[in-house]
Specification:
single chain; 317 residues; alpha/beta; TIM Barrel; eight-stranded parallel beta sheet; 10 strands; globular
């Protein structure tokens, strides 16, 4: 469903939840998020879909009561492009489980990593994407896709399937697929990274050119700073974490950004969201500070929105 403003939320259960007065019961995550004026939780099924039916029914009721959106992150070990038929079969089973859970939770979004590709050359990558597309289309009629969409996520490692172009290709070829723009992963695999607002805008523009305005207007975004190594993402970081020195820091300095904060950063990102006039679901995966990062981004967007509204009122007067 479309939103008339960006939606901010968290991945999983942040440490601050367990430090709060709500900590006694995980069911309280929805009320806790509401108390922080956050809108969304992405439930992590890292090692499999294990939520029981009665818990799903309870979460659905609580999410509706507290007006909190839910997305589901599928298990990390889904690998549809594997040459091993048993692995592919298990991966398909896990997607079925995720879609069934989405229906039980009244969630419309299943996020998944495309996984590794069988080989080490560009042809193997291409074959891997084509295999993923074929499987997703083959299982289409067995999935409850009237409301639930699948969101392939940009990969954080260069040896994984899921470049921005590959995610776009999957979404072009699978009618129930939408992009999950993990901007930290994208940053980690780019030569120059995502530094300025215009860097983010170029990503949004590319998605719009290929997938249409409606897709980018309400897309799904993972946003947080990340440590970067030779092979891509090294680790999730907090927005206020500082690195002493790294090759990426020298790159930033060369681009007139003499700072050693980890990137991507919230300010340029929110500027880009505002400039592109989009209202995505923005999930913060900052290390141990998902709620703090989500609030930081929300406050920056609200500040920009209020300043613009005031400016319009002044001009009208």
């Amino acid at each position: 469903m479309p939103y008339n403003r960006p939606i901010f939320g968290v991945a999983g259960f942040p440490p601050n939840f367990f430090k709060s007065s709500f900590k006694r019961n995980r069911d309280n995550i929805f009320e806790w998020l509401t108390s922080l004026r956050l809108d969304w939780v992405e439930l992590q099924n890292t090692y499999g879909v294990k939520m029981k039916d009665e818990q799903a029914a309870r979460y659905r009721q609580l999410a509706e009561q507290w007006n909190i959106g839910i997305s589901i992150h599928a298990p990390y070990y889904i690998t549809l492009a594997s040459p091993n038929r048993e692995i592919v079969a298990r991966s398909i089973d896990r997607l079925h489980e995720c879609f069934a859970l989405a229906v039980a939770l009244n969630s419309e979004r299943v996020i998944f990593h495309p996984g590794h590709f069988p080989g080490s050359c560009s042809k193997s990558r291409k074959d891997g994407i084509q295999k993923i597309v074929k499987i997703l289309n083959d299982i289409r009629d067995d999935l409850p896709i009237s409301n639930v969409k699948i969101y392939p996520e940009i990969a954080g490692k260069k040896n994984q399937l899921g470049t921005l172009d590959e995610i776009i290709e999957i979404c072009e070829c699978v009618d129930y697929a939408r992009p999950c723009l993990d901007l930290a992963h994208l940053h980690a695999c780019m030569p120059d990274g995502l530094i300025e607002a215009e860097d983010f805008v170029k990503v949004f523009d590319k998605v719009e050119r290929h997938l249409g305005r409606s897709t980018i207007e309400n897309c799904h975004i993972h946003m947080y700073p990340v440590g970067v190594g030779d092979h891509g993402e090294d680790s999730h970081m907090s927005f206020d974490d500082v690195e002493e020195k790294s090759q990426m820091a020298f790159t930033f300095f060369a681009r007139n950004k003499p700072t050693n904060y980890f990137y991507p950063q919230s300010g340029p990102f929110i500027d880009a969201v505002f400039a592109s006039k989009i209202n995505p679901v923005i999930i913060c995966e900052a290390k141990d500070t998902q709620d703090i990062g989500a609030i930081l981004m929300r406050d920056k967007w609200e500040s920009r929105h209020e300043a613009t509204s005031s400016s319009i009122e002044v001009r009208q007067c």
